[in-house]
Amino acid sequence: MNKSQILFLIILIPVTGFIIERYLNWLNSTMWSDRLPGKLKGICDEEKYRKSQLYHRENDRLSFWSSAFNLAVIIFMIAAGGFAFADDAARSVSHNPIVVSLVFFGIIGFASDLINIPFGAYDTFVIEKKYGFNTTSVRTYITDHIKSWFLALLVGAPVLGLITWFHFKTGKDFWLYAWILITLFSVLMNLFYSELIVPLFNRQTPLPAGSLRSAIESFAEKTGFRLRDVYVIDGSKRSTKANAYFSGFGPKKRIVLYDTLLNEFSEEEIVAVLAHEIGHYRKKHVVVSLAASVFLTGVMLFLFSLIVDNPVLSEALGAKQPGFHLGLIVFGILYSPLSLLIGLITNYVSRKNEFSADRFVKENYIPSRLADALKKLSVKNLSNMMPHRLYVFFHYSHPPLLDRLAKLE
């Protein structure tokens, strides 16, 4: 492909993605109604249903303006030579290609975060607060951003620097070394995320001895799940929404409960939620998902290695000389249709896995308690309980509530 064709594609692809997303949101909105649907009677009342619709309408409006603004910025950066300007600024700092890449992505990443802060702040302090979810202080919001920048410098910069170094040292074979590096990084993150990253943002404390802990340990022992510990995280520091998750594998696996979950759910409902998470582990969903992610990363890096040295990629962005970092920007846009296809497949598999974990609860615990917990979570979090099927197909990694209830009940 020549410069004009690539330029056309890297503008067409984001625009097409924006149009598709808007269409999906519109389809989703056609499922809303003024009256409580019969299928939701007994799950939520008229007031909660109306409130959930208003909540999603406001989020959709914010999503539209945020997406439209970001699309306009991308088109401007491509058409007006914004990426070329950032490249020139990076090259003025150093002639070392690794330093140039790091400075370039530092400029792009920092600028992108800054221009999106107003949208994030509006979501947190206006929409989330209006519907009773936000408990984040301005100080916490600011320090979260500072910590995120610190992590990007401490973790992201060395990884990116090494990948760039591999490219200049090994040429087209760099993808293999980069793949090994990213695989090691992914495994380490899975093992130590809860111990190293989470404490920077939240406090985790072991679930104290008592009837709930005994019930959890009893179920874990019954199903052959070697439980290292159960932790409670101070999720109420930022939101009233309830959740629970499973992290790590092998000796580093742990279950984490949000304190908001403990405050509003019965012991049997909490055990049912954790039984679902244990089901993922027992069915090997965690390991298989990690292996699939590693494989897909290798495919992506290999495809990138085929075109990274093509100077036409950098020329399409208006740059005076080719660069690894510029090729990565163009490839990221060109790869997005394939990424969308992969996302559709992984979401489909993920929904299947959720049904499988629910089935594990049905076979080993009390399915009605998981059903009760799912209902409570959906109503409390103002979830869209009747999404459009096509929207689910594109976006949902978990099946809709009614589908899960049908299989449980």
TrEMBL record:
CDD domains in UniProt: M48A_Zmpste24p_like
- Report the locations given in the UniProt record: Endoplasmic reticulum membrane
The entry lists its GO molecular-function terms as:
metal ion binding; metalloendopeptidase activity
The record ties this protein, via InterPro entries, to: CAXX_Prtase_1, Peptidase_M48, Peptidase_M48_N
How and how many cofactors are bound, per the record note?
Binds 1 zinc ion per subunit.
Q: Which Pfam families match?
A: Peptidase_M48, Peptidase_M48_N
Q: Which cofactor does it need?
A: Zn(2+)
Its main localization is endoplasmic reticulum
Alphabetical GO biological process terms: CAAX-box protein processing
**Binding positions for Zn(2+) per the UniProt entry:** 276, 280, 354
Q: Where is the CAAX prenyl protease 1 N-terminal domain?
A: 35-203
Instruction: Look up and give the membrane topology term.
Output: Multi-pass membrane protein
> Which positions are catalytic residues?
277, 358 (proton donor)
Q: What positions does the domain Peptidase M48 occupy?
A: 207-409
Q: Does the keyword ATP-binding apply?
A: no
Q: Does the keyword Cytoplasm apply?
A: no
Keywords linked to the UniProt accession: Endoplasmic reticulum, Hydrolase, Membrane, Metal-binding, Metalloprotease, Protease, Transmembrane, Transmembrane helix, Zinc
Record field: transmembrane: 6-24, 62-86, 98-122, 149-168, 174-193, 286-308, 328-349
The Swiss-Prot or TrEMBL record describes its family as follows: Belongs to the peptidase M48 family.
The record's section on PANTHER family has:
CAAX PRENYL PROTEASE 1
This chain belongs to the protein called Peptidase M48 Ste24p
